[in-house]
Amino acid sequence: MPPAAARAPAISGDSLEEDFVLEADFVPSDTEDAHTLSDADLPNPISVLLSDDDSPPPPSLSASLEPPAKKRKLEGKDKDEKRESKRQAKKLKVEKAELEKGEVRSLGLLPAESLADRVMEKQAKALPGLSQIERDDLRLAELMFLDTSSVTERDSLLAFIKQAIPTLPSTLAKPTKKAGSPRVIVIAGAALRVADLCREVKPFKMKDVDIGKLFAKHIKLADHVEYLDKTKLGIAVGTPGRIGKLFTDTESLSLTHLSHLILDVSHLDAKKRSLLDMPECREDLFRHVLGDKDVLERLRMGRMKLVLF
């Protein structure tokens, strides 16, 4: 068997034979300067990106090639659009608040039937957990409301009372025999508002007949009980929380002479909410004041009226 032929060495693309010599045309001369590529020799990136069909460069690359002035202009446009969007949102919020404010102010201008329905809608939001039977028990009917749709005096409680209930001033001039038994109770949403309304009706205060301020801020319930047990009142102004406590936990605030229960719905707080909408007031109002069994009985018998100021 003939001997195996010697295996030829592997030749790669980088291998050269020992006697390989470059041709003269490929050998640079000693006098020839090495040539380096300058920026002028590089192809224009735009011409490279644009093909024969003139298709534009990719968006990301196109954005990076935009002049700085154009980029600043686009960024400024985006900021202007965001600013305008915020301005429009704020405008809509203000308009919504004004509509709600107008709605609240116009409640007292509604006829009694519509007014009763609107107040019941507010009650449903304030007491969402009530069953239908409980809701029917607490229902405020049309006949319970005093019709004030034609009353134009809405900025002052004193002027409102004189126009809406013209016989009341002469009635208030007659002191009741029982202490703690006002002829009128006004419900307001906050202590400061109570104080303001008390100043407005101050002309009804007499030597032996006081205007009662009934709110919980800085005044204990026991102090109010002591005050009511010895003081005759023509008008009592208070918050739903304190009035409700006096109704449910004491017998000091009597309904014997009460002819009108006025709800101060025209006044709005800093968040544009009325007495019927404030979370801190509305539950006490509908459950412990308007939902008090003695108040409801007096309303159903026609001995007193609800009035929306």
Element layout with pairings:
Layout: H1 45-49, H2 59-64, H3 68-105, H4 112-126, H5 132-137, H6 157-164, H7 168-172, E1 184-187, H8 191-200, E2 210-214, H9 221-230, E3 233-238, H10 240-249, E4 260-263, H11 279-289, H12 293-300, E5 305-308
Parallel strand pairs: 1-3, 1-4, 2-3, 4-5
Helix pairs in contact: 10-11
Span between termini: 127 Å
**Overall body shape:** elongated
Note poorly predicted spans. Answer: 4-8, 31-35, 94-102
Rg of Cα set = 43 Å
DSSP E strands, number:
5
Relative helix content: 40-55%
Q: How would you describe this structure to a colleague?
A:
The chain has 309 residues and is α/β, with parallel strands linked by helices. The protein contains 12 helices and 5 strands. The chain has helices at residues 45-49, 59-64, 68-105, 112-126, 132-137, 157-164, 168-172, 191-200, 221-230, 240-249, 279-289, 293-300; strands spanning 184-187, 210-214, 233-238, 260-263, 305-308. α9 (221-230) links the parallel β2 (210-214) and β3. α10 (240-249) runs parallel beside α11.
